[in-house]
Amino acid sequence: MRGLGVFAVFSLMGGGRSESCWRETICTGPLEPAFPGEWDVYNYAPDSRSVKPKMVLSGDDLSSTPYNGSVVLSADTPQVVLDFGLEVGGITSLNYAGDGAAVVGLAWTEAKNWIGSDSDYSNGGSTPDGHLTLNITESGSGSYEVPLEKLRGGFRYLTLYHSGPTSTTVNVSDILLEIGFQPTWPNLRAYRGYFRSSDETLNKIWYAGAYTLQTNTVPVSTGRAIPMVKDSWMNNGILGNGSTIIVDGAKRDRAVWPGDMGVAVPSAFYSVGELESVANALQVMYNYQNKDGSLPEAGPPLLQQDSDTYHMWTLIGTYNYVLYQNDTDFLAHNWDRYQKAIEYVYGKVDRASGLLVVTGTRDWARWGQGFNNSEANIILHRTLTTGSYLAALIGDDTLSGTYTDRAVALLTAINTHLWDSSYGAFRDNATETTLYPQDANSLAVLFNVTSAEQDESISSRLVENWNDIGAVSPELPGNISPFISSFEIQSHFLAGNATRALDLIRRSWGWYLNHPNGTGSTVIEGYLEDGSFAYRSDRGYPHISYTSHAHGWSAGPTSALTNYVVGLSVTGPAGQTWSFAPQFGDLQSAEGGFTTTLGKFRASWAVGDTGVSYSFNISTPEGTEGSALLPCVSGNRKAKITIDGNVGVYATKTVNKLTGHAVKIQGGAHSVLVQEMVGA
C-alpha cells in the first residue's frame, strides 16, 4: 500500500475540513463555490485532490481506451500512456506486481505531441528532464511514490514504459495523482467568482484561465531549484513565506514574476478569488529589494535582476492587490520600500525629454529594450497614477499630488515623442524606428495615456498584426504572445470595439483550447505564428517542449470577460465603489460575479429581440455605490430606463471615452429595463 505522507483527503460528502490540504498545509480555503449554478459544468478543477487517469493511450497511433484501474507492461506492450484528460500536477503514486525483475520508466508531458520516454523540458538548462526509474528487483508486488522534490508541476500525460528483461510482465495498478496546487483549499472547485454567456467557447475560455491560475498557485517549497539541475528536474526551491504563492507557470518556471502578475492577479481575483498567494508573492519581492531601491525581476530562488519594467510591475501589482483586498496593513508595512522603489525608477527620467531612460533592459520576451522605450514609459505612467492612489489611501496627500504631477508631465512627453500621428500608433522608441509594438500600443489604451481618437486608431492598427490564430507580435517576430494579447483584448474593449475583442479571444484562446495536442483545460504561454508549440524557439529556449501549457500571464480573457462583457469592475477598495459598463458585442446574454471582503457582486444582462431594448439585474453589497454606463445599442440618443419600477429618461453621455446612458446605482439588488427611444 502506497504512502501519502500526511496528506488527508477532504470529502465533500463528509462535510468537514481535513487537518491538511497539501501535505502539512492547513486548509484555510472555502468549502463551497460562492455562486453555485449550471455554469459549474465549465469548471475544470477536480472535485478531489486524488485524481486518477481517464484514458489509456497505446500503440503507435495512441488509440485510447478507458482506464479501468490497471495497465500491463510486457514485451508485447512495452509502453502505455495515461491521459488524465486535463492539466494536473503533483505527486504520482502507483502499485505494481511483477513476475520477475524489471525496470519501469515514468515520464510526464503537457502536450500530446511530446509524449515519449522522456519528460518535456522544465529545468531551464540545456539538458532534457529525462524520466524517473522504478527498479523492481524480484517477482512480487509493491508500491511506488514519486519523491516530493520530483513533483511534476504540470502535465496531462504520464508515460509508463518497460525497459527491463523482455520476459517480465508488470501489472501497474491504482495509479493516482495527489494534486499539489492551490495548497490551502480543501475544495478546488470553490471559486469565488463565475461567468456564463451565450457563447460556449467564451465560457470555456474563462474557466480555462481560472483553472490555469489555480495550477500556478503552489506550495512555497516547490519552486524550481536553482542552480538548475542537469538531466532531470528538481522542484524543491523556496519561493517565499507562508503556505501558498502565485508563480508564472505550472510546469515552469515555478517562480514569482511580477510582469506575469499584471495579467494573472486581476484574472485570479475575478475568478478563483484567492489573494493570499498574491500577497505572499508581492511580499517576497519587497523582502529582496536591493539597496538602491530596485526590485528583482523574479523572486527567489532565481532572483533575476535588471528589469525596469518588472520592477514597475511589482508596484502596479501592489496597487491591484490593495484595491481588491483593501489590505492597508500590507501597504503600510511596505510603504517605505514602495516609495524607495518609485524614486529609483523615476530617477531615470531624462529632464530634457521628460521620458524614462531604460537601463534595466530585461523584459517579457520582446527583442529589444532600452533608451526611451514606449512600453516602459507607458508602464511608468501607470506606476505613477496608481502610486498617487495609494499615497492618498495611506493619507499622504502631498506625495499623491507629486505622483500625479509626474504622471501628467510624463503623459505629455509620451505623446510628444512617441506618438506617430501619420501612422496612428506609438513607435517602439523615441527614434526613427518603424516598429509599432503590440505591447506599448495595447497598454497605452489600457493605462489611459490616449484620447478616444487615438484609441480607435490603435485598435485598427493592432488588427493588422492578426493571422487566423492570433496576433503576431511585431516586437517578438513570428511569435504569438497571449500575455501581450491579454492587454490587447482589453484595449479593443476600451476603444468600444467589443466584437473585435471577442474575435481575438476566439481565434487565439479558442484555437488553443480546441487544439488536439493541447491540455484542453488551460492557457498556453505562447506559440509560433504557424501554430507550432515552439514559442521563442529561435530565442534560445532549451527545447521546443519547454513551452508552458499552463501560464497565468495568458489568462487575460478571464478578467476581461467579467470587466467588459458582464461589465462589472471594482473601482474602490474591495468594491466600496464599482463600475457597471457591459459591452454586448455579438452576444445575446452574459452574467457573472465575484466576491470581495464586503460581499458578493453579481450582474446579468440579456438583449431583447427588437434590438432596441435590453434588461439586466445587478446585486452588490449594501453601502457600496456604482457608476453604470449602459450601452446605446441602436444609435438613439435617449432611452427610457426603468429601475425597480421607477422610470426615467436618460440622454447618451461619454464617460471614460465610451458612450452610453450614465446612471448611478446604489448597493443592493436592482432590476433594470432599458428601452431606447426610436427617433429620439
3D structure, described in words:
Pfam families: Bac_rhamnosid6H (PF17389), Bac_rhamnosid_C (PF17390). Residues 1-18 form the signal peptide. Residues 567-633 form the Alpha-L-rhamnosidase C-terminal domain. One of its GO terms (biological process) is carbohydrate metabolic process. Keywords: Signal. This protein has 680 residues and is of the alpha+beta class. It folds into three domains: 50-179, Sandwich (Jelly Rolls); 194-563, Glycosyltransferase (Alpha/alpha barrel); 567-676, Sandwich (Maltose phosphorylase, domain 3), CATH 2.60.420. The protein is built from twelve helices and 28 strands. Strands 1, 2, 3, 4, 5, 6, 7, 8, 9 and 10 form a ten-stranded antiparallel sheet that branches. Strands 11, 20, 21, 22, 23, 24, 25, 26, 27 and 28 form a ten-stranded mixed sheet that branches. Strand 25 (638-643) and strand 26 (646-651) form a beta hairpin. Helix 4 (308-325) runs antiparallel to helix 5 (328-346), helix 9 crosses helix 10 and helix 10 (482-494) runs antiparallel to helix 11. The longest helix is centred in the middle third of the chain and has 21 residues, at 374-394. The chain is globular, with a radius of gyration of 26 Å. It starts with 49 loop residues before the first strand and ends with a strand.
